[in-house]
Design goal:
Structural class of chain B: alpha+beta
Largest sheet of chain A: 7 strands, mixed
CATH architecture of the largest domain in chain A: 3-Layer(aba) Sandwich
Strand order of the largest sheet of chain B: 1-2-3
Distance between the termini of chain A: 47 Å
Shape of chain A: globular
Largest interface: A-B, 164 and 117 residues
Number of strands of chain A: 26
Oligomer: heterodimer
Helix content of chain A: 10-25%
Number of helices of chain B: 6
Largest sheet of chain B: 3 strands, antiparallel
Radius of gyration of chain A: 26 Å
CATH class of the largest domain in chain A: Alpha Beta
Helix content of chain B: 25-40%
Number of strands of chain B: 8
Strand content of chain B: 15-25%
Number of domains of chain A: 4
């Protein structure tokens, strides 16, 4: 989230796509309802915020929304694109914000083009783009040329206008299935949010990310928000609702193949030196007034990390042991792991609190991959569909040669440490009870394994042991590091004074400071662990001095306890809030006041050298046009890989031209189906009473939602002779599930590309492990929803397309 | 058996109020007022926690008490009213967190399945830790690449993947990243991708 949960109460309009917060994040949803019930919020004269929900399924979120539109899954780029077009064509954008706070005025290189579904630089053999034309015309100082009148046809603004002019209300309707009138009603409400005294938030979840166009779906929303001037403002922003207690914290700490802690990129093989790495990876300053804070300090953050990890072995002379950091050959993401296993190249997998089998995609293929490993370690509190995979569907345990370890680990309440919520709030929790049975903490298991590996290397040698031999282990008991010690390591310190640092501004690139994760520097200064702070709603007058809901002394949020990111953009060029009733920060003549400023605290807006508002980008402004995506600098609608129609915008480039096709690349048989054989669109989703798969072990929750099912629209059920409660078989090209049918009007038909198509839904939560599975051992072999989903993902992020694929359904006899 | 609706019940109890004794329901309502109220959390230790499920980050208060034998009993988990995030509220998952906290369904001892066998075997910690360490070293040695075909130093282990962490503490996550990168692992993933 750019903002945070409580901040949603500040919005006038809440645009929800690819999310169902009333059911998936019910307690967070109270802030949506508070906005709706607040007469000071809302378009026009107010009367309460408007909630607009676009979703294939009418959910409890839809039930309290002011508008619900049934959208075909996977077509939100067309919906947002249509809104962008409406805002631009009707001059509803926030003109001053767009001119000063976005790259609208930047002039794009002459070679950049978009024709018939392809951007310039496409290589059809490699199915990738060469992105050299996706940049700016540069002046003699290597800064981007700008045209502040926005009239030059090569400005980002004019290119954007042209690009989205194709997204007419009629085209939006043809692609999404939303009736034109409904779409125009949405557009009218959204368009008003470009007024400086109004603000809209966009809320999304994995219903947007889990598509082959997932990254661009988010970018598209961000582009709309920049045009409306809603990024950086309380009540605004792009707000991802994350699904797991600490998915945010452990993304920040880089349990992710392409990053190191604090979103420093993992180096690529050609980057032989620290200089090469910084030159390649740090954002480049492209405007004289851009601070380019990240780019400017990239080296300091990296050196402080290396110094923290390699200690005395990291010296100026060896470039702080930069060579120790592994450089991946290429994409090493989730699906690539199992693809490598299928190719026989992956030997061992360690899973901690995550089950490959149920998560999929294409669970049957993942099961084959697990059976192809030499060894599998499952660290968990409960058995999972991965620890038990050799008992799963299609498996003959006597033939599965994988050595499997079930390592009992503690769970959240048996250990202390912090969880970081969707709003970036780092909240410390206590250890309440001791570990059950012989369970051990995950990090103690990892420490113990690591120390034993180290011991094996020191006794018998082996391949380049230096990085692991020199890894710092400065804990009182190396076998049992305390999480408090690790929290201090993450914060970092000055090696000269030995004192912990209060801000990442103090980090240096000469090896005199450390920081395990620079964005958390300041979370644990000398004064103590700030994530333990508890000044909350027991005293709002004292604890929320601005009245905006920041509660600065409750826990701690990164970066630097800032509650709304990019908040310099919440005020105009002179430093006055766009809406004085909802200030983010304000220049009081001496300093910035309000939230922790995303800006130098004492830099006057009148200063001729004043930095542009978005201090993290090389441009200093928000990017309507960006070269950071693999599939184009402007979001474009592509059909899901399995789609019932050809792309109405460009039939020849129907689906993403750059989505990586794993099976094809590996020479395995095609596992994608066609609409002729699989005529129904399916999507997967979650229920209030379950979280992924762990809740299959919680009896109360299993009682509330006991058995696997699918939701079948009434009309489709009638066509197939299916009654509510019947057992049905749902199949894709990849597999089948056999579950009970819930016949409902929550799902229905959409008319797209001149065709009427049914959409159905399948909750993901069931498998062959858990309380229900114990009751139905045979049946539960056919409950893995991800047996249906395709092994393909987003062009940039490789997040699988769990949310849009084709199936057929039949009644079981 | 006669069925009594909630409305009937209220009527009956209202009629009996202040009067007798054994009601038409067949039991003595007066007893209900004589039970001494004693909070289950009387004298308990109050700790702070955060809900283990989604990423709203609802604060929890957990109550526990030391039993005479020294073991610790978890008595109650409820929403923390001070939190600016949840203001004391919890959803069905958070409200049943007790059943996740202690459960007869837990794995309490390390288990091992040898290749081609059809059952788990209970083993001790040293057995699994040694064996995993040997596997990690062997796989690392077999698949570690110091230089790629272009002569670039790469120092990566291609044959081991680590995935997880959305459920454990941030500090554990950081530690896992540090150790895995230290081993040269490049296949590192968590729930954010999927």
């Amino acid at each position: 989230m750019t903002n945070h949960w409580r901040d949603i109460k500040n919005a006038d309009v809440i645009l929800i796509n690819g999310a169902n917060p009333a059911e998936a994040h019910p307690v967070g949803f109270q802030w949506f309802m508070r906005a709706k019930l607040d007469p000071a919020r809302g378009p026009g004269q107010g009367g309460g915020a408007k909630i607009i929900h676009a979703d294939p399924r009418f959910t409890r979120t839809s039930a309290v929304a002011d508008m619900y539109v049934r959208i075909r899954t996977g077509t939100d780029v067309a919906y947002f694109g249509g809104l962008i077009n409406y805002v631009l064509q009707n001059n509803l954008y926030h003109a001053e914000y767009v001119k000063n706070y976005t790259n609208a005025s930047f002039v794009v290189k002459d070679g950049f083009e978009f024709n018939d579904g392809l951007f310039s630089g496409y290589n059809p053999q490699k199915r990738t783009y060469e992105a050299s034309t996706w940049g700016y015309e540069l002046d003699e100082n290597k800064f981007a040329k700008r045209d502040d009148t926005l009239q030059d046809p090569r400005t980002v603004f004019q290119l954007l206008k042209k690009h989205y002019s194709r997204y007419t209300p009629q085209m939006v309707s043809t692609i999404t299935g939303i009736p034109q009138d409904d779409f125009l009603k949405v557009a009218q409400i959204v368009g008003e949010m470009g007024r400086p005294d109004k603000v809209m938030t966009i809320v999304y979840a994995v219903g947007l990310t889990q598509h082959t166009t997932g990254g661009q779906l988010i970018r598209c929303g961000a582009v709309l928000q920049l045009l409306l001037g809603n990024i950086g403002r309380p009540g605004g922003g792009m707000n991802a609702e994350r699904g797991h207690a600490n998915i945010q914290g452990n993304t920040d700490h880089a349990i992710s193949w392409e990053i190191l802690p604090g979103y420093l990129a993992i180096p690529a093989p050609g980057e032989r030196t620290l200089d090469d790495y910084v030159a390649e990876k740090a954002p480049k300053k492209s405007d004289p007034h851009a601070w380019n804070f990240f780019g400017t300090n990239y080296r300091k953050f990296m050196v402080s990390l290396l110094k923290g990890w390699y200690g005395d072995a990291a010296t100026k002379d060896n470039e702080f042991a930069f060579e120790y950091i592994p450089k991946p050959a290429g994409n090493s993401s989730w699906m690539t792991i199992y693809d490598q296993a299928l190719r026989g190249k992956m030997e061992g997998v360690i899973l901690s609190g995550m089950t490959a089998t149920s998560i999929g995609p294409d669970s049957n293929q993942v099961l084959q991959a697990l059976a192809n490993l030499k060894w599998l370690v499952v660290m968990d509190a409960f058995p999972t569909t991965s620890s038990e995979f050799w008992k799963g569907p299609g498996m003959d345990a006597s033939k599965v040669q994988t050595e499997v370890f079930m390592v009992p680990c503690t769970h959240w309440i048996e250990k202390e440490g912090s969880f970081v919520n969707s709003g970036r709030w780092m909240q410390w929790k206590d250890q309440v009870i001791p570990p059950q049975g012989a369970a051990r903490h995950d990090h103690w298991v990892l420490a113990e394994v690591f120390l034993r590996v180290k011991d094996l290397y020191s006794r018998s040698g082996g391949k380049f042991p230096d990085p692991l031999m020199h890894l710092t282990f400065n804990y009182k008991d190396p076998h049992k590091p305390e999480l408090d010690e690790i929290a201090q390591e993450i914060n970092g310190k000055d090696l000269g004074t030995g004192k912990r640092l209060a801000t990442f501004a103090a980090l240096k690139d000469d090896g005199t400071t450390t920081a395990g994760d620079w964005i958390y520097t300041g979370s644990y200064p000398e004064s103590g662990n700030l994530s333990k702070r508890r000044e909350g709603v027991q005293d709002p007058a004292k604890n929320d001095p601005t009245g905006m809901g920041f509660y600065p002394n409750w826990a701690w949020s990164w970066p630097l306890n800032r509650r709304v990111m990019y908040n310099r953009a919440s005020a105009d060029v002179d430093g006055n809030p766009w809406d004085p009733k909802r200030p983010g920060i304000r220049w009081d003549g001496q300093k910035w006041v309000g939230d922790v400023p995303d800006y130098p605290p004492k830099m006057s807006p009148k200063d001729p050298k004043a930095w542009l508002p978005f201090i993290m980008t090389g441009e200093g402004v928000g990017r309507l046009f960006s070269n950071s995506m693999a599939d184009g600098p402007l979001p474009e609608h592509y059909e899901p890989i399995e789609s019932p129609i050809e792309n109405p915008l460009h039939a020849k480039v129907s689906a993403s031209p750059v989505a990586f096709l794993y099976d094809k690349a590996a020479g395995r048989p095609d596992r994608f189906g066609t609409v002729e054989e699989f005529p129904v669109i399916a999507t997967t989703y979650r229920l209030t009473e379950h979280e992924h798969y762990i809740t299959q072990q919680v009896p109360h929750l299993v009682q509330l939602q006991p058995e696997a099912f699918c939701e079948v629209p009434t009309g489709l059920a009638k066509e197939k002779g299916i009654q509510n409660g019947d057992m049905v078989r749902v199949s894709s090209k990849r597999g089948t599930v056999e579950v009970r049918a819930l016949v409902t009007n929550r799902l229905g038909q959409v008319e797209v590309g001149g065709k009427k198509v049914w959409q159905m839904g399948i909750p993901i939560h069931w498998g062959f492990v858990g309380v229900s599975a114990d009751l139905y051992p045979e049946k539960s072999q056919h409950w893995l929803a991800n047996a249906l989903t395709p092994y393909v993902g987003d062009a940039s992020a490789r997040t699988p397309e769990f949310k849009a694929f084709l199936v057929k359904i039949e009644k079981m006899t | 058996m006669a069925t009594i609706t909630r409305r009937d019940f209220l009527k009956l109890t209202a009629a009996g109020a202040g009067a007798v004794v054994v009601s038409e329901l067949g039991f003595n309502l007066a007893q209900a007022y004589e039970v001494k109220q004693e909070l289950r959390i009387e004298g308990a230790t109050e700790s702070h926690s955060v809900c283990p499920y989604c990423a709203v980050g609802c604060s929890l208060i957990a109550y526990s008490r030391k039993r005479p034998d020294g073991s610790i009993e978890l008595l109650q988990i409820e929403g923390d009213p001070d939190s600016p995030v949840n203001e004391g509220r919890l959803c069905p998952k958070g409200a049943t967190a007790m059943q996740l906290a202690t459960s007869v369904r837990r794995v309490e001892q390390p288990l091992y399945r040898a290749p081609g066998t059809t059952e788990w075997k209970k083993v001790d910690w040293d057995f699994v830790l040694d064996k995993i360490a040997q596997n990690v070293k062997a796989s690392r040695d077999r698949t570690f690449i110091m230089q790629d075909a272009k002569g670039n130093p790469v120092n990566r282990c291609e044959g081991i993947a680590f995935a997880g962490g959305a459920a454990f503490s941030s500090e554990e996550g950081y530690f896992a990243t540090k150790l895995m990168r230290g081993l040269g692992v490049v296949f590192i993933e968590q729930q954010a991708r999927v």
